[in-house]
Each structure stands twice: as structure tokens, then as C-alpha cells.
Specification:
Length: about 525
């Protein structure tokens, strides 16, 4: 029967052939970890997350992921559902980061091998994934503690060998909810919600959107005592004419929920999320929204972005320059204000100063424009920009525009290109003038006029070739990147979040509730 057979973790920086972690759930595989690592390195880049190795005995399927310069390998010699193994590897990474802290480093795994071994045995039973929720694992495996490390350094014993009278023991009562541990206690009861959207769009030279989508994530950080029952209501602007929970043609398309969400409540009342949350950080849901109007007619209102680009190519006396004009506007960024009356959300600006911006004052930051350059470009000349700085690395030019002081206005970038000269290309070579050695006869005036006409045609032909060569050296598009804090492109917002039931929270306890909105431009292509 197919199962997860083993897990090997290698540190890829610096490269090492000896694994820092080696764990087998069944009998030791016939192929060693070092051999699997060598076969993995022998594969051409970019490597697939699933590699078939027919040269091993028996043939092996090698699953692999890379996280923070750590290479996770899991071999299997029988057929198995690929997504099962890959999802399990990602769960291992999430659990290790939850226990050992982020970023996950090889040194942390080596220093806490006793805890890592316990986690792997709990997460996978005889090769079958079992308990993979961090909250449930904390009921049976204690996270590393300072007291355990101090006692271990004094006694010379690992933390698992220290008598139980010196260390806290796991809870005796396991939680009946797989994703939430039992006996949760917090001094300050707080709820934090982060709505993050990533925009991808393609814009025609006329400025019309060819495609525009927004992929959103609802991140949650729950610090509530007991077992709370929460109800969160999402809302979209009425101008979008979308219904939450509608099919992909409108509203939240392709929603993905955490197991704690009650799907029956969502189907009956689209936009309402009823759930008992895990303790700590988790992703409550993800979704996708089509930002284009239904039917995508020319008369329909097009999406608005805070950063727009106008790209002109083939300008200048020699048609060897291109210019980009960027307009940064925040006038249309309507404040995303919560409508909670009894207990409104906090702005979280005082508790998260690094985040900047707020729902009442959206801020555009991290604006950069990238111009991919064709291979024909040798270098740039006479480059200037009215604001910010630029960097040219040969294949592209990146222009970064600072937005300090809530900058809103127009910035200009202009540069010329120098085209490479290739061997065998005589389009730029000047024809040699013939030398009069007495063999030439005088020509009459009409013939001279004809010769001048031929020179004009030749000159026009050369200018046409040079212009076509410059056209081949012009960028075909501009890639726009930016982030807006306090605003979502889709207009989705948290309308309400309240505790509707549960136990253990205490009478009269009103938890602090905060929400943040963040939009990032993932891949916005402006064609010219």
C-alpha cells in the first residue's frame, strides 16, 4: 500500500551532501539519502517538484520542495497521490516554523532534533499523514522552552529525558476540535484580520484592460481564550453588482476555506463565515475576483488603479529613445471604513507602525516600473528620470519611484538605446567610394541626375533599415509594481466580526478587533 516512506532535509546554502535531518517511517529505503541528493542535483534546472528516477532499484518517485535554502526530499517506490505528499511536505514546513520560529534554518532543526522527531512521528503514522494541525500537535508535543534548554545544559540530557517534575507536561485532555488545542488562555484577548490581494492585469496600448484579476487571502491571528465561536461578514461595493459566493463569473470565484469554516452557513448566507478558529495565526480563506465588468463591453466602466503608465517608443531624432510617463493618483481610493457600530475595528496603526497607511488614509508605496529589453540592446545612453532612481542590468531597466510625503502626480523616465552590431550584418557598413584610375569616362548631366536619384533611394533604404533595427530594440511593454495599504482593488471589506458563542472566554470580555487591507501589484503588463 502506498505511503510516505522517508523525509530527508538538506541545507542547500552552503551545498551539503549529508542530510541535516533523516527520518524513515517504514523500512530504510534501498537508495541512500546521498544518492537521492546526487540524482536530484543531476536534473536540469528548473526542477519539477516530482521527479521520476528510473535508474534506481526499484524505480523511485522523488518529491521535493525548497524553503529558506532548505531542500526537503521524500522518496516513494510505489504509486501515490502526488498532491498528498506535496501537501504533507508543506505542512511539515509550517509546523516546524510554528515550533522553531521563522525563518526556518538548518541550525534550528539540528539543535531541536528531539522535538522534530516527535513531531514527525505524530504527523505521520506508519507512512500515513495523521495529525498535521499545529494546534492539535501542541497538545501532545511541547514546544522548546527556555527552562528545558537550561536544565538540559546543566544535566547534559536532552529536553525529552528531563524528569517531568521539572518541565510542564502536555495537556491531559485532548481537544475534540482537530485544529484548536484545549485549555487556551490569553491575558489579552485580541483578533487581527489581514485582507491581502494580489492584482494581475494586462492593459492594451489604448489603456483598455484586456484582463484583470485579484487573488485575495484572509489571514487571521486569533488570541482568544477558551473555545470561541465567531461570525465574520464580508461585503462588496454595490457598484460592483457582485454577490459573495456567486460562481466564478461574479463575486468570490474559486473560494478555498480553512476546515474550521462551516460551509453550510456560507451556502445559505453568502458572505458570512461561521467558524471556531485555531489558536494563533492561520489562513481563514482565499479567493479570486474578476475585476472586469460582466461582458467586458467597451462602454462598461474599466477598473481603476492608483498607478498608470504611458509608454512611447521610437522617439527622438534617430527614433532611438523611449519615454514613460507615470501618473500616481490616490484621489479615487475610497477609504475602506468599517461599519461596526457597537465595537468598531481598530486601525492597528499604533500596534503595527511598520505597516504604514490605514483604511482611512490609503497610501501608495513601493512603486517600480520595469522595462524588459530585447537582446538587440547593447547599452543605454542619455538616461534621465524626473523622480527616483533606475538600475540597468543588461536585460531590463528598473525604475523605482519613491512616494514619501504621500506623493501624487506625474513622473517621467526617458532613455536612448545603443544597438548591438552582429558579425556579417552589413546594414550599417558604408559603401566604399570608387577610385578614379582613368578607366571611368565623363558622364552627361542627365545621367548625373539619375545617379543622384539612386543615391537618394539608397539613403532612404538605409534609413528604413536603421529605423526597423531601432524598432526591434524598443521595449514591448512595461511591468508595473506597487502596493497600497488601506485599500483593496476588489472593494471587499470586513463588515462585521463578533463572538456569537463558545465557552471559556468569560463574561463581559470584549476582545480588541483590528483589520488591515493591503493590495499588491503582482504582474501588471502595460503594452505599447
Amino acid at each position: 500500500m502506498s505511503a510516505v516512506e522517508a523525509l530527508y532535509v538538506f541545507d542547500s546554502f552552503p551545498p551539503a551532501t549529508t542530510p541535516i535531518l533523516q527520518h524513515e517511517w517504514r523500512s530504510r529505503p534501498a537508495t541512500t539519502a546521498a544518492s537521492l541528493h546526487s540524482l536530484y542535483k543531476a536534473q536540469p534546472s528548473p526542477r519539477s517538484s516530482l521527479i521520476y528516477l528510473p535508474t534506481t532499484s526499484p524505480p523511485t518517485l522523488l518529491f521535493n520542495i525548497i524553503h529558506n535554502n532548505l531542500l526537503f526530499l521524500s522518496p516513494t517506490t510505489s504509486e501515490i497521490e502526488p498532491l498528498l505528499v506535496l501537501e504533507f511536505l508543506h505542512r511539515v514546513v509550517d509546523v516546524l516554523e510554528d515550533y522553531l520560529g521563522s525563518p526556518l534554518l538548518g541550525s534550528k532543526i539540528e539543535a531541536n532534533y528531539d522535538i522534530v522527531a516527535q513531531l514527525l512521528n505524530e504527523m505521520c503514522d506508519d507512512g500515513f499523514p495523521f495529525t498535521t494541525e499545529p494546534n492539535a500537535l501542541r497538545d501532545v508535543v511541547l514546544p522548546p522552552s527556555l527552562m528545558g534548554k537550561l536544565l538540559g545544559s546543566v544535566t547534559g540530557l536532552p529536553s525529552t529525558s528531563i524528569p517531568s517534575s521539572f518541565t510542564p507536561s502536555p495537556t491531559q485532555t485532548l481537544s475534540t476540535i482537530p485544529w484548536r488545542r484545549s485549555n487556551v488562555r490569553h491575558t489579552n484577548n485580541e483578533l487581527y484580520v489581514d485582507l491581502i490581494e494580489l492584482i494581475t492585469a494586462t492593459i492594451a496600448p489604448s489603456g483598455r484592460f484586456l484582463s484583470a484579476r485579484s487573488n485575495g487571502t484572509i489571514a487571521f491571528n486569533c488570541k482568544l481564550s477558551g473555545v470561541p465561536d465567531l461570525l465574520m461578514t464580508l461585503q462588496t461595493p454595490t457598484s460592483h453588482k457582485q454577490k459573495l459566493g456567486a460562481p466564478p463569473t461574479g463575486g468570490l470565484g474559486f473560494p478555498v476555506f480553512h476546515p474550521c469554516v462551516r460551509l453550510s452557513r456560507w451556502r445559505e448566507h453568502p458572505g458570512e463565515l461561521s467558524f471556531v478558529p485555531p489558536d494563533g495565526k492561520f489562513v481563514l480563506a482565499s479567493y479570486e475576483i474578476d475585476l472586469l465588468p460582466s461582458g467586458n463591453s467597451k462602454s462598461a466602466i474599466q477598473p481603476q488603479l492608483p498607478v498608470s503608465v504611458e509608454l512611447k517608443t521610437g522617439i527622438g531624432s534617430l527614433s532611438s529613445e523611449f519615454e514613460a510617463r507615470v501618473l500616481i493618483s490616490t484621489a479615487f481610493l475610497a477609504p475602506t471604513i468599517n461599519t461596526l457600530s457597537a465595537n468598531p475595528f481598530g486601525s492597528r496603526s499604533s500596534r503595527s507602525p511598520a505597516f504604514g497607511g490605514s483604511s482611512n488614509n490609503p497610501a501608495v508605496e513601493e512603486v517600480s516600473i520595469t522595462f524588459p529589453l530585447p537582446p538587440a540592446v547593447k547599452t543605454l545612453t542619455s538616461t534621465r528620470c524626473s523622480r527616483g532612481e533606475f538600475h540597468h542590468d543588461g536585460r531590463k531597466v528598473t525604475w523605482k519611484i519613491p512616494t514619501t510625503g504621500a506623493f501624487s502626480g506625474t513622473a517621467t523616465f526617458r532613455t536612448g538605446v545603443v544597438v548591438k552590431s552582429y558579425g556579417g550584418d552589413d546594414s550599417d557598413e558604408e559603401e566604399e567610394e570608387p577610385v578614379d584610375n582613368g578607366e571611368y569616362q565623363d558622364v552627361q548631366t542627365p545621367k548625373t541626375t539619375k545617379a543622384n536619384g539612386g543615391n537618394d533611394e539608397e539613403k532612404a533604404r538605409r534609413e528604413k533599415k536603421a529605423k526597423r533595427k531601432m524598432e526591434m530594440a524598443m521595449p514591448r511593454c512595461a511591468l508595473v509594481a506597487f502596493s497600497v495599504k488601506g485599500w483593496l482593488a476588489s472593494g471587499v471589506k470586513v463588515d462585521n466580526l463578533k463572538v456569537v458563542g463558545g465557552k471559556g472566554l468569560g463574561e463581559g470580555v470584549k476582545p480588541y478587533k483590528g483589520v488591515k487591507y493591503l493590495t499588491k501589484a503582482g504582474d501588471i503588463e502595460v503594452r505599447c
